[in-house]
Amino acid sequence: MLSPGNRMRRSAEFGRTMRRGRRSGRDALGVVLLTARPDAPGAEDAPRVGFTVSKAVGSAVVRKRVQRRLRHLMRDRIGDLPAGSLLVVRAKPLAAHVGYDTLAEQLDAALSAVRRSRGGATRRRKGRGGGERGAARADGEQRAGS
């Protein structure tokens, strides 16, 4: 079981993590990691983890079983997270049907992907066309609708 100091409980923390965190998903689950800036208050706190298991996963009994499995898996992995970070683990409907070992493999893969450096890539913004409206493309053609 995760210690109370490692559990995320406030809605504002969940919201901030979901809006600003880095995402990685697998078949049975998805994770969102928000790392704390070194100069931010609370950057030296213990990492905290929150879980979301929607009704699409199953009945209340099934959802609770999935949540307990995920909590138990995260207990061994909490030390690998950076200090002050917030992590949301979101169970998908398939999580109710896969075995414990499969869930562990998918959690490990998602966590390693979300911690991996993006190599200088930046987040894409809306309006991916780039340039000004009506500007010619590099090959000399006009964009459709211009």
TrEMBL record:
Coiled coil: none annotated. Residues 1-20, 115-146 are annotated as: Disordered. Residues 115-128 have a biased composition (Basic residues). Pfam families: Ribonuclease_P. It is an enzyme of class 3 (hydrolase). It comes from the Bacteria. It catalyses: Endonucleolytic cleavage of RNA, removing 5'-extranucleotides from tRNA precursor. Residues 129-146 have a biased composition (Basic and acidic residues). One of its GO terms (molecular function) is ribonuclease P activity. RNaseP catalyzes the removal of the 5'-leader sequence from pre-tRNA to produce the mature 5'-terminus. It can also cleave other RNA substrates such as 4.5S RNA. The protein component plays an auxiliary but essential role in vivo by binding to the 5'-leader sequence and broadening the substrate specificity of the ribozyme. Consists of a catalytic RNA component (M1 or rnpB) and a protein subunit. Belongs to the RnpA family. NCBIfam families: rnpA. This is Ribonuclease P protein component. It comes from Nocardiopsis suaedae.
